[in-house]
Amino acid sequence: HVSQTENLLGDLKRRRCELAFCSFAPAEKDVAFVPVLELPFVVAMPAGDPLTACEAVEPEQLRDRALVFNAEPVYSSLIQRIFDYYHITTIVRGSSNEDSVLLRMVADGMGLLISTDHPQMHTDGTVLRPLRQEVFHRYIYLAYLPDAPHTNAAGEVISFAKEHALKEEGLQPKACDRA
Fold first, then answer.
1. Is residue 107 predicted with pLDDT exceeding 60?
2. Which of these, 57, 9, 39, lies nearest to 172 by C-alpha position?
3. Residues 6+ positions from 17 with CB-CB distance below 8 Å
4. Angle at 5 between CA 67 and CA 73, to 5 degrees
5. How far apart are CA 135 and CA 28, in angstroms?
6. 22 beta partners
7. Which of 30, 43, 84, 165 has the greatest number of CB atoms lying within 10 Å of its CB?
8. DSSP code string of the chain
9. Quick one: pLDDT at residue 173?
10. 64 Cβ neighbours under 8 A, 6+ residues apart
11. pTM given for the model
């Protein structure tokens, strides 16, 4: 199984593209990563779940709740780290690497899904609530090869991204590597 980030970085290194928007890949020492977007964590739940009454969900409210997990290790390991940090044992009832399948599991009452908020997460039959925690963060990065020649347009995008880069906070792969 190859992740979307691996595919994008493979295309970048084969020079099929000059830029990629993807997750941070610590093993890619020849690729520069600039944080450009933070994706907040949300809890997806079926429409009738008691947590829908909450404005936001505290990690403690997820104790003893069944979950469905994204099968991609980069996502499932980060979500597991959140639960481990709060000393919550996970009860995983299902997994998939497709958001639509995971959200169908949620709508069918199989378990809650912790993910980042993005357009595919907004579906009928599920309700999203922010996960209230400030320890873990998920960023999207502009990736490029700093030693490769770039078109003027790509160079402008890189310059803009570097000038407006987000300040990384909390625990997530790149911040952990700097510690």
1. yes
2. 39
3. 8, 11
4. 30
5. 25
6. 141
7. 43
8. ---HHHHHHHHHHTTS-SEEEE---TT-TTSEEEEEEE--EEEEEETT-GGGGSSSB-GGGGTT-EEEEESSHHHHHHHHHHHHHTT---EEEEEES-HHHHHHHHHTTS-BEEEE--GGG--TTEEEEEB--SSB--EEEEEE-TTS---HHHHHHHHHHHHTPPPP-SBSHHHHHH-
9. 58
10. 91
11. 0.80
Q: Which amino acid is at 33?
A: F
Spatial CB neighbours of 2, under 8 Å, sequence gap ≥ 6: none
For residue 84, the one-letter residue type is: D
- Distance CA(22)–CA(141), nearest Å, equals 5
CA 112 from chain center: how many Å? 16
Only one residue has tokens 């690497």, namely 97
Mean pLDDT of 134-141: 90
User: Which tokens go with 46?
Assistant: 């079926």
Q: How confident is the model over 122-132, as pLDDT tens digits? A: 999 999 999 99
What the block records as the tokens of 147 is 């030693």
Cα–Cα distance measured from residue 95 to residue 45, given in angstroms and rounded to the nearest whole number: 15
